[in-house]
Inverse folding.
């Protein structure tokens, strides 16, 4: 076939892989070539060559005008759901906005009669087999199928046939984290593309064709194995994939949403803390192009359990000489006891866990300036990326930030020769090995940790609980050097205090 | 706080006082004899005799059950969401797989379902919101309790086999 005249020519400009969410502007220099413009609903928007119509809409925050199921800004384009069709003038048919490249001078209508009729028809077909079990389904309230049905969908179905039922895949555990209900699936294949192109683990496939098309794990025995399974449940537009940790816990319309930072590793993913009456129910990632994109890992997603733990210590404990146990007390007594202890100690070492915010680092450094040495400690060694996406080996959020304010790391020999060690640590850094010294613990601890310390013969003098990351303001510097500040997402309901007041109790000064 | 003395002007009949007492007693007598001879009674002998209430009367709540005495409630929280008095408190859980013979439509169940009757205003919104016809208001109006704790109806109390409406 050497003399075949059939040739495939690639387009001159490659399509952009993912959508940026920032507008672009032409170079103000009059000699420079201006950027092309596309008119969407009567208003002209500049775009970068290679954008599709949907990506232009994403840039200018018009995403509410164009409904979508298969399209996701963080994943390659599929064009399977036909929900995002728009009317382009001079084009004979409706075009899928997610896969049609925008052209200079193109005139697009997103809400014309023809478009709305098409969307209504698409919704009718999607709902033909959808079970409409919204009362049981966990997605209800944040479900794209529900929202678009209200907006575009038919009031009544044209189908009288029985709905399709996948008998074996109604409540199938794909892994210990994700449950699949195949009846609800609308076959957008976002999940398949996510495992193919984002995590590159190829965990999920669509079996069969047409009516019998079914989602399944590539290897049924292994199931889902990737570390970003929570993301599958985030972007699933229906309740087909649900996260076991959140399943049946709370209806989503009760949740308050506050932005914060994940402190599960040194990446510092941007998250939204979903809580109801100050009880954290889940973490969800929010988009940040520079740090985490659209995703977050499961380890970080489940890391709120450390703070929402029933065994977390939220009241000051002081060692009772008579019984030899740690006893709960009030802050007045605790501060008197620790203050006397700090004053009587001849040589003190402060070990600051790298899960403290940079501001807390500065405070600790200032408070102990003439009294003790301050060293930072993570317990995870040097940071390295665990995969091509987000996960890092350093499971503490602020090693770089504490380095930047001039603290030095804890060497194994530093602890010897001190008679008092103050360990400040918010639940993420590992505890340093202490033997033979008196120890005052400050921060977030669980009952289990204190008990292990006691069995390993560490003389814990007092435990002063402080606020966790989601309960306080501050800033972290992540592994790539981005400094991000955050504010408190939930209010602490225990007796824990913020770091300035704990330091005042320790050194006996008002700060 | 000062005290204000209010002086009223009384008529002669009011000052004598007896006139109004006789007038009042005459009304009593009139009712007494009309009840005695004309059977014109306005009260009933309550526990033995009961008043007829409307078919649409909204009384104590119940949760309907199916043939196997499993509650129809799937803990969707719609009644809790719509309740204006915030008297419904639900905790949801997954039905254990070995007990679940119904499949996916009853995979979620209420671990606890409490209605605080002292808060409830019997508006019937919960009944209207329920997609499974699980929570309903019966025509039972005898809900007197001795302590406040007894006025919180739990799932076992609410669950009962229903024949018709209430």
């Amino acid at each position: 076939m050497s003399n075949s005249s059939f040739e495939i020519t690639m387009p001159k400009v490659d399509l952009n892989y993912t959508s940026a969410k920032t507008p672009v502007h032409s170079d103000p220099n009059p000699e420079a070539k201006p950027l092309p413009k596309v008119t969407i609903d009567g208003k002209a928007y500049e775009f970068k060559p290679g954008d599709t119509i949907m990506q232009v809409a994403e840039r200018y925050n018009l995403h509410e005008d164009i409904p979508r199921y298969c399209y996701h800004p963080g994943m390659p384009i599929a064009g399977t759901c036909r929900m995002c069709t728009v009317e382009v003038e001079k084009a004979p048919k409706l075009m899928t906005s997610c896969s049609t490249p925008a052209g200079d001078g193109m005139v697009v209508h997103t809400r014309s009669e023809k478009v709305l009729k098409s969307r209504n028809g698409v919704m009718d077909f999607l709902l033909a087999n959808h079970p409409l079990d919204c009362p049981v389904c966990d997605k209800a309230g944040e479900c794209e199928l529900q929202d678009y049905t209200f907006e575009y969908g038919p009031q009544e179905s044209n189908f009288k046939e029985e709905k399709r039922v996948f008998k074996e895949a109604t409540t199938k555990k794909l892994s210990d984290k994700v449950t699949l209900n195949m009846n609800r699936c609308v076959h957008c294949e976002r999940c398949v593309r996510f495992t193919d192109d984002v995590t590159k683990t190829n965990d999920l496939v669509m079996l069969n064709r047409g009516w019998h098309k079914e989602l399944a794990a590539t290897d049924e025995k292994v199931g889902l194995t990737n570390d970003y399974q929570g993301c599958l449940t985030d972007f699933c537009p229906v309740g087909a994939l649900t996260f076991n940790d959140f399943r049946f816990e709370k209806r989503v319309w009760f949740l308050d949403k506050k932005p914060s930072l994940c402190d599960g590793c040194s990446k510092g993913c941007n998250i939204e803390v979903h809580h109801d009456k100050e009880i954290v129910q889940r973490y969800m990632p929010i988009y940040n192009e520079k740090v985490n994109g659209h995703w977050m890992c499961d380890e970080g997603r489940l890391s709120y359990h450390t703070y929402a733990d029933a065994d977390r210590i939220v009241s000051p404990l002081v060692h009772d000489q008579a019984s030899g146990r740690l006893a709960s007390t009030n802050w007045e007594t605790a501060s008197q006891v620790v203050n006397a202890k700090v004053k009587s100690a001849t040589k003190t070492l402060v070990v600051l866990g790298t899960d403290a915010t940079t501001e807390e680092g500065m405070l600790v450094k200032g408070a102990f300036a003439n009294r003790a040495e301050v060293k930072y400690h993570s317990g995870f060694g040097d940071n390295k990326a665990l995969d091509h996406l987000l996960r890092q080996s350093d499971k503490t959020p602020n090693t770089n930030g504490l380095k930047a304010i001039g603290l030095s790391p804890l060497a194994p020999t530093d602890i010897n020769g001190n008679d008092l060690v103050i360990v400040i640590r918010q639940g993420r850094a590992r505890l340093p090995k202490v033997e033979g010294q008196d120890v005052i613990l400050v921060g977030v601890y669980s009952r289990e940790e204190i008990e292990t310390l006691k069995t390993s013969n560490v003389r814990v003098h007092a435990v002063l609980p402080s606020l966790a990351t989601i309960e306080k303001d501050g800033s972290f510097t992540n592994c790539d050097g981005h400094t991000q500040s955050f504010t408190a997402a939930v209010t602490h309901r225990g007796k824990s205090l913020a770091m300035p007041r704990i330091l005042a109790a320790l050194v006996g000064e008002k700060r | 706080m000062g005290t204000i003395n209010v002086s009223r002007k009384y008529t002669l009949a009011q000052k004598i006082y007896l006139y109004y007492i006789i007038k009042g007693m005459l009304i009593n007598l009139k009712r007494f004899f009309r009840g005695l001879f004309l059977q014109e009674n306005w009260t009933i002998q309550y526990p033995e005799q009961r008043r007829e209430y409307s078919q649409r009367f909204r009384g104590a709540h119940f949760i309907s059950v199916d043939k196997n005495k499993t509650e129809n409630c799937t803990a969707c929280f719609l009644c809790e969401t719509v309740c204006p008095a915030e008297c419904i408190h639900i905790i949801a859980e997954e039905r254990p797989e070995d007990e679940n013979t119904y499949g996916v439509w009853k995979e979620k169940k209420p671990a606890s379902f409490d209605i605080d009757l002292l808060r409830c205003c019997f508006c019937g919104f919960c009944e209207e919101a329920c997609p499974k016809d699980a929570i309903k208001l019966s025509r039972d109006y005898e809900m007197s309790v001795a302590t406040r704790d007894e006025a919180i109806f739990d799932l076992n109390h609410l669950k009962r086999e229903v024949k018709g409406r209430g």
